[in-house]
Amino acid sequence: QVQLVESGGGLVQPGGSLTLSCAVSGITFDMYTMGWYRQAPGKQREKVSWLTLNREISVAESVKGRFTLSTDSAKNTLYLQMNNLEPEDTAVYYCNADHHFMAKQYWGQGTQVTVSS
Question: What is the pLDDT of residues 93-108, one digit of tens each?
Answer without folding.
Answer: 999 999 988 889 999 9
